[in-house]
């Protein structure tokens, strides 16, 4: 069969030919620059470092990358339905599964690119502003209970947050496929995400076994970097298994529905 | 053409007992139809008769409840990718990615089928007359230009079947004429089977070799459209417009002439028409016009579909 990568290339073209995509990149870069410079300017007592600013940027701004990717995911499937272009896209010698897969891959690539842009720009800029420093471990640099090198620690933080992002984006990709409405997919997945964070905080205080299997308790994987176990004695391994379960469910529903559905827009 | 594997006599497309049931309603009921190569076949029916649903099932956008569609011998149900490989289509409006240019849109669809070069893209752009505007964003295009871009993406991969759903929607008379000539040319010169749906009868008469008429999900007739020349060879109703209708009717009594407001109506073939004319002129009757009143497709269509509203 003809090169599948051409389909991914098409999806990338559709993402990057939109002006909105470039605004998203610009917003991330502006935040990195502004936060870094402000941190330097207001660093009166000299406690700021490359690692602390990088870590702050990551913990406050990664959410934005998640939201941006959710917006792009909604456009990717629901947008094609509402514009009617889905009809021209599907009447090609490709199975629906592969067309959907190309969209999904392009989406994860987009999130990965945004993450890398944020990681590199915040690292380079703050390296210039603060210098590398002499902290040997994340413990020395950030005061967390972790003995990896500071850069390797930051990389782990990004990877774990990326896994959390994949879960939310897969959820919104599913909602986008189910409802064929971009607004609904964005709204609902963001609602579930934020409501889940709040509710899981409350629920985790309850002493029921089923609470351990809620998706939202496991999205914040980087909490395991500082300690082995957290509330409810959860471990990284357990969290990852729960996430895999949800992931398979989301993917199965998405592909099943997309393959079966009559296109009648 | 290299990839037309079926011989000329065999139909490119076979619809076999195609049925669609949604809920309890049977939308399409046992539709069976063959589409031969090198012919423009019209698909005519009132709004809501199931034209678009049939087309959606042919291109795999909708599932058939029963039956199958074979394209080039491949089943749309079981070998979709092979069946759809040689199909070009516009289903309803030619929706394109508005934020991209016409060229980027064509590039996008060309990547989904092997063997389409940028040279071929330029060729079809030239063919549909979009050369000047192809690098402009689609959102700046008029409806007619979008329609032409739609045709370009449908013929880019040299399909053996071209499906157009209501292709004249939103086109001005010049655009319709252009499209019509172009479709006929594709059918005759490239041997492509063209399947065009419409509810506009006059349009179908001009564009198609045959029309299949559908009503309430059922195929009720397939008939050949005759050209004016073919009609002249058969006996038909001919109206002679004259200055003295009563005299003309009396004179033409042996032809069983009927008195009309403007003149005399007779049933005659081509040769007889000439002789009658000579007789009238010989008798000193002024002949202002001779018109062949063949029953238009519209009349036939209304008769068949029981006069249900058309537009």
TrEMBL record, chain A:
Keyword field: Membrane, Transmembrane, Transmembrane helix
Residue intervals passing through the bilayer: 21-42, 62-83, 104-133, 153-179, 191-216, 236-258
PANTHER family: INTEGRAL MEMBRANE PROTEIN-RELATED, MEMBRANE PROTEIN
Designated name of the protein: ABC transporter permease subunit
Species for this entry: Paenibacillus sacheonensis
Lineage, top ranks: Bacteria, Bacillati, Bacillota, Bacilli, Bacillales
TrEMBL record, chain B:
SMART domains named among the record's database cross-references: AAA
Keyword Transferase: no
Pfam family membership, one: ABC_tran
UniProt entry tagged with the keyword ATP-binding: yes
GO molecular function terms noted in the UniProt entry: ATP binding; ATP hydrolysis activity
Occurrences of domain ABC transporter (ranges): 13-241
SUPFAM superfamilies: P-loop containing nucleoside triphosphate hydrolases (SSF52540)
Keywords from the named record: ATP-binding, Nucleotide-binding, Transport
Family: Belongs to the ABC transporter superfamily.
Protein name: ATP-binding cassette domain-containing protein
